[in-house]
Every structure is written in structure tokens, then in C-alpha cells.
Amino acid sequence: MTPDDPRAGLERWRLILGAPAERRTGGLDGPDAARDTALQWLYGRDDDLARRGERRGTADGREGGDGPSTLAVVDWLDDIHRLFPRETVERLERDAVETYGIDEIITDPDVLLRVEPSTSLLRAVLRTKHLMNPHILAAARRVVEAVVRDLTERLRPEVRRALTGARFRRPSRAPLARNFDFRATIRANLAHYRPEDRRILIEQPHFHSRTRRHIEQWQLILLVDQSGSMAGSVIHSAVTAACLWGLPGLRTHLVAFDTQVVDLTSDVTDPVELLMKVQLGGGTDIARAVDYSAGLVDNPRRTIVALITDFYEGGDAHRLTRTVRDLTGQGVTVLGLAALDEEAAPSYDRDLAGRLAEAGAHIGAMTPGHLAEFVAGRMAHGGRTA
């Protein structure tokens, strides 16, 4: 059927409105019928459909009567990859895992071989990998590797550009053309402007150094809450730390915490291995993690502690506030980030976040690129507000 066929519009409405619309739109056939079956297999589980009397199948996806035959998860994945564009496939797989809890997508090795790697599936793998046997874990690692590779390729240029672009523009006596400072030269020679010629006579050219001057080592300490709700930030923290690793003038630490503190700095160069060691879930003791970071600080005025958490403290909130106040009082820059990911859409305890802000912390949510820009600004301004 061509897009100009009047039936095409009716079939699109039938796909949108579901089976009850058939008395007005007519039935489906061919690829549209297959798409409807795939959508019904997933979204037919929605309780709202049952309440409206529109669900044809059972809660576990089995179809009754003369409806379409039952689909296994692996068959459903094959179908949606054949019938829908990639963006739609990723949305369907995300809904299957996050909305309807179809665990076979991350626990069946045959399914894991077919699934489209995505951040949402990586989050699901990280939440359940401690329950996987070695065979399934090996298949799940493919998802981890693919998503980390994609994120690294997209984030590394942005993160490194922010840091390497933060040059210190210092006056230079070396009269090299490539170092000519146009703005400083104009300002210094405005008194020699000749209106009749509409020209400025340059009596004192200015040049600047294009190379970064030697600076004291800076520290960036990433403290990452590994409670279940922070999965996206854990992923992006691991990749961001890997992107920052080895940059001149910056020493990066990565520390994960729940009720315990685990220093993962030695694994930063391999974010896949790092993520395979993370255990999401459990309680949260932010105060203990911040205390640990205080012990890592070498030069307070050249240290940034980025605390990535939802601020739901299971430990001692008073002790946490006191430690943050002590750090900021020494000159440490403390960032409290409710999210570090591409969306930077946080959900967090605003009361505790407000108390940490009063103690001197900067509170917000950032993408990895914005974090890199913040760090670069601090380094460029010697610790003063950028």
C-alpha cells in the first residue's frame, strides 16, 4: 500500500488507537498487522487497557481466542528489529525492561545476543548482574562494551576540548606571528589612531603564549553514589573519568559508595571493567564517602570534589554537612551533583542539598561536558569562581 492510498491513513489510526478502532478503520494486514502484534505483545500488559476492556491478551502477554499466536521474547526482538526503525526499537526495549519488567531481555543469553545495546539496557544489566551466572554475564558484557564504546566516542571530544581549550593567555616577548594578540595590541595603540587614514599605527605590538604554563597539579575527586536510582550517573561518571584520565595538570580519582566506600581509581582506564565491578543498590552513607575524599586531598585550593548523589542520606547528615563545611573552608571546591548524565534531570532530597549549599557546596546537575567546562574554568582561574 502506498502512502497516497486512502487506506494508509486509516491503518495508521488503527495502529495508534488499537483493536477497538477496527469497526471504523478496518483490519490490518501485512507488515502493519505484524507491527500491531509486536506492539500488542508489549503494551497489551498495561493495566489501563484491561480497565477499559481493550486488552486482548493476558497480563503475561499470552493471547487468547483467535488473536495472534504467543511470541517469545527472542521472537519479539527479531520482529521489532525487522519492523521498526532503530529509535523505536530502543524505546520498545527500554519500556520492556523498565516499565514491564521483562527480565528475559537481560537474563536470556540468546536474547542478549539480539538486543540493541542502549544506556537503559546497560542500567538494567548493572542492577541485575550480581544475579547472573557466568555464561549470561559474558553475554551481558557485550551490552556494557557497546554502550561504553558509544558513550566514550561521543563524550571524549567534548570533555577533552573543554580541558585542553582552557589555555592561560600570558604576555610573551617572543614576536611570533601565530602568537599575535590582536585585542591587546589594539588597546595599547589606540592613542596612535590617525583619523585621516582611518588607521592605527602599531608602535607596541603585543604577543601571548599559546602554550599552557606550568601549573600545580589539580585533583578531581568523583564520589559516585551507587544506589539503584543513580545508575545513569554511575555510567557517565565512569566514562567521564576515563575521558579525563591522563590530561596534563589534572589527577582524577573515582570513588563509588553505598554504605561502604570503594576506590575504583585503578580501574578508570577500563570503564567496562569498572562498571562490571559496580554493585547498584543498598543503603547510602554519603558522610563516609566525603570523609574518605577529605583524606585524598593534597592541595585544598587546587582540589575539586564532585559528589554525585541523590542526597538521600542514610548516614549522619550533620557529620556530612560539617565535613563539607570544613572542606570548603580549606579552599576545596565541592560540587554536589544530583545527576551527571546526558539529560541532567535530577530527582533528589532538596532539604539536604540546601544544607550543603549553605555549607559552601555548589549544587546542581550537569552533563559530562558541563562538568569538564566547570573543572577547566576552575583551573584557568586558579580556584576562583569562573
TrEMBL record:
Gene3D superfamilies according to UniProt: von Willebrand factor, type A domain
Pfam family name, one: VWA_CoxE
Domain VWFA: 217-376
Cleavable signal peptide: none
PANTHER family: OUTER MEMBRANE LOLAB LIPOPROTEIN INSERTION APPARATUS (PTHR30634), OUTER-MEMBRANE LIPOPROTEIN LOLB (PTHR30634:SF16)
Protein's UniProt name: VWFA domain-containing protein
Source organism per UniProt: Streptomyces caelestis
Organism classification: Bacteria, Bacillati, Actinomycetota, Actinomycetes, Kitasatosporales
